[in-house]
Amino acid sequence: MKTSFKLNGQAASLDLDPRTTLLDALRENLGLKGSKKGCDHGQCGACTVLVNGRRINACLSLAVTHEGDEITTIEGLAQGEALHPVQAAFLEQDAFQCGYCTPGQICSTVGMLQEAADGWASLVTDDLTADTVLTDAEIRERMSGNLCRCSAYPQILAAIRSAGGVA
Amino acid sequence: MSSVKDWAAPTPISENRSGLIGKGVDRYEGRLKVTGTAPFAYEVEAPSPPAYGVLIASPIAKGQVASADISAAQAAPGVRLVWTPHNVPAQGERGAKINPRSQRGANPALAARIEHFGQHVGFVVADTLENAKAAAALVRFDYAAEPADLIFEDNFAQAEQPEGEEDVRVGDFEAAFAGAPVRLDETYVSPLQNHAQMEPCATTAWWEGDNVTVHTSIQMVKGGQHTLAETLMIPSTQVRLITRYIGGGFGGKGQAYDDLTLAALAARELGQPVKVAYTRQQMFQATIHRPAVHMRVRLGAQPDGRLDAFALEAVTHCRREAPFTEHAANFARSLYAAPNRLTGHRLVKLDIPAAGAMRAPGEASGMLSLECAMDELAEQLGMDPIALRLRNEPETDPETGKPFSTRQLVRCMTEGAQRFGWDRRNPKPGQVRDGRWLVGLGMAAAIRGNFLLPAKAGVRIDADGTITLRQGMTDIGTGTYTILAQITAETLGVPLAQVKVELGDSDFPPAPGSGGQFGAATAGSAAFAAGMNLRKALAELAIGDPNSPLYGDDPELVTFGGGNIAVDNRAEPLERLVARAAPEGVYVEGSITPAADARDYSQHTYGAHFAEVGVDPDTGEVRLRRMFGVFAAGRILNAKTAMSQITGGMIWGVGTALHEYNEVDPRYGSFIAQDLAGYHVPAHADIVDLSAMFLDEVDDKANPMGIKGVGELGIAGAGAAIANAVYNACGARIREYPLTPEKVLAALP
Questions:
Q1: A interface mutation test: which of B33, B42, B281 has the most A CBs within 10 A?
Q2: Nearest CB to A100 within list B129, B199, B644
Q3: Looking at residue A164, what is its pLDDT?
Q4: Could you tell me the end-to-end alpha-carbon distance of chain A, in angstroms, rounded to an integer?
Q5: Which chain A residue's Cα is nearest to B477?
Q6: Quick one: B298 exposed, middle or buried, by C-beta within 10 A (0-12, 13-18, 19+)?
Q7: Cα-Cα end-to-end distance for chain B
Q8: How far, in Å, CA of B379 to CA of A137, rounded?
Q9: CA distance, residue B690 to nearest chain A CA (Å)
Q10: pLDDT at A166
């Protein structure tokens, strides 16, 4: 089945088995292996990518449903040699150990920061009428869809704070 | 053999002239990981496009694969091969060795004999993952099932002493316990847990002639190489195993699994690269797990808190055909003084997946019992839990009488108490409220053994000055690449950027791999030895070179620093020397072996955990509010990665105390939780305000660098600190982990 979308700013056209998930299309058909398969069931967040600026689990989405979408993966965040500020913060704060959940954590952070900027509330938001303030509790809640078994959570929090959250 | 006395001399590491040792430099491979360009095993580019393998699991726990119908699967689109126990190629018998020097025996896949639920019985390879998965669903098996022993608690009567072990007795425990004025006799239960590494096991394999190359996710390079060679029944020289990046191990990837075997076999059969990954469900059912442990603790004390009698007896389980003992009592042999002591283990053999090592095997389970029991005894005695521990602080190892190499447990506790605000703890439970939450504080000690194994490393310098360290070692997220770069750069007096580190290749000088928190000390000591040998080789090169400013100098006077080799003020850059005198580069190896007299010392890492929790008395929910740990683990090589290791371990303790457990389904022998929705590992929102610090320490009995392991210490005791905090918060003493809401509600006074 033919499908085309914009991938990290470039046009991508594919002829895909319709059973192919977006995650497998990225990893196996398009050679972008930065998005990770941790559970293939939307439970770990390692496959998080940005679709039209919003974070999704690429393993839960069939690739052919993304006709015309703008998809950004971990490979699309850096500008040449210059790391995206979230990538640089993860490196500086040691916000990973094995690194397998890291692309998902970083993409999720980028999406989450935009959600907060857009005024989206979370489960721990007290005042739905006030501007969203990314407290530590807000960051922790909003990032809980991305598991890190190495348990770099204190360092991930520090990275996100330095890259856009507030204390 | 060397002696620990040789290790006390000053070295470039102890002198630390460039300040690289201990410095929190960024991870060596960090840039690759944050950009998603570090290739894990399933992502490695094979020489030609790979085919995709999918595994099929047994739905019964014990019995035989009677028959298999593969016709529909074979006819499915894109299918290249379908294997069952009846047509899989010949493999070495389990445990068999044809190479006498192999560290491990064969591990054949797809046996007809079923020994646990989830054992792989079929394997399908197709041109795409989608076709392979679809075809796998078409294979039909008939089984001859047999009765199986599945439930640990139902089989206690079978518990036996692990082969080759005896209980350890000192003094007369029974008499001393019977006569003790204050006694505690309680049983604690630690849960069955799964490693849940983020990266499932995976292998990409291809052949060139008679030689196979496998990229796989494994903690032990040589072990994996030898297992595969024995399984394929070929010399290990024909197997090249590469494991550059590993998406979490925690002990669960200490051995080879069926992905390795079947990818290699299928790649040979098809003459094409093949890659295979476990599904998340297969990770639960078909790798190892931490077994549950029932631990009876008996403490007999004087009214002043002095222990007269101490016993810890642990009953645990393993798979019938895969003996493994969770040594949950071992740690206690070196922790507290008591003249009359009893420790030992019993093992129940079951027909469930294999038990095995998981982060801090022994301590992680065992400390959940004794560190709770000490809290309970302290309350009985009307003592502070820290004071009770101080009262029983031994001068020498309480079992063997050997001196401790270093032991800063007391300082860990006192420093931690002061920084955490332990004096604010109300010893009476249930007294502190914050809104709906009952708030409590708890603490526990931490101890974890420290080890050094034999290892080698190779280091070369090229004419451009690049220094490359090569070692058959792994980095499972622990920071191995980074600390080896630091050790090498500091030893040779060059900037960090001048050093390259290449790991995880069976062609490189061997190291035992990552496990038992021995990795940094073992691999690092070999790297240090290699660096020292390179210094020696470069000094000889310079002294013998008439064009060198050091020509004819005394080798004892040669120094390294700032990228130069020098004697007094005569110096030249290393690359100039090498380019002129050895343009092909200089390569040397170094090795480390345990010192002959290392066993004369009781050698451990220590720590103390402090936790504050809130308990909701209406729902039984426990929330961590604050956690702090103080640790003493020798010289710290990298402040950043060591801290990440230790806080990661503490968070595993939080999971152990509050969330993580698995149970066996008595109908099928499967694990009830088989994915990351059912098995709750700590998520970001579970972890608040958690931090740690290291005490200054150098352990010159440990290895030439005075370092120790930190990868496992953080989990040891951490869960008990939380359980003790729960008791202090609400008076619910729960002896069966984890402390889930229904247990808390049932235990509320």
A1: B33
A2: B199
A3: 78
A4: 48
A5: A98
A6: buried
A7: 60
A8: 35
A9: 7
A10: 46
Residue B69: band (very low, low, confident or very high) from pLDDT cuts 50, 70, 90: very high
Residue contact A100–B129, C-beta within 8 A: no
Q: What is the pLDDT of residues B440-453, one digit of tens each?
A: 999 999 999 999 99
Which of B23, B28, B34 to probe the A interface (max A CBs under 10 A)?
A: B34
Whether B280 contacts chain A with CB within 8 A: yes
- Which of B36, B130, B478 is nearest residue A17 as measured by Cβ atoms? B130
pLDDT digits (tens, 9 = 90+) for B476-521: 999 999 999 999 999 999 999 999 999 999 999 999 999 999 999 9
How far is the alpha carbon of A46 from chain B, nearest alpha carbon, in Å?
8
- Both tokens of B447, joined, read 């101890």
Tell me which amino acid residue B522 is. T
Q: What is the largest CA-CA distance in chain B?
A: 85
Cα–Cα distance between B617 and B434 in angstroms, integer?
A: 12
Q: Is the pLDDT of residue B162 over 60?
A: yes
Compute mean pLDDT per 10 residues along chain A, 167 residues long, and list them: 97 97 98 98 98 98 98 96 96 98 98 95 93 94 98 98 71
Known catalytic residue: B660? no
d(C-alpha B687, C-alpha A160), whole Å? 15
Which pLDDT belongs to residue B1? 60
pLDDT beyond 80 at B136 = yes
Phi and psi at residue B79, in whole multiples of 5°? -75, 135
Backbone angles phi, psi at B500, to 5 degrees: -110, 145
Angstrom distances, CA of residue A6 to CA of A21, A67, A70, A74, B454: 16, 9, 5, 14, 52
User: What one-letter code names the amino acid at B647?
Assistant: T
pTM for this entry:
0.98
Give the tokens for residue B217.
Answer: 């996710």
Tell me the residue length of chain A: 167
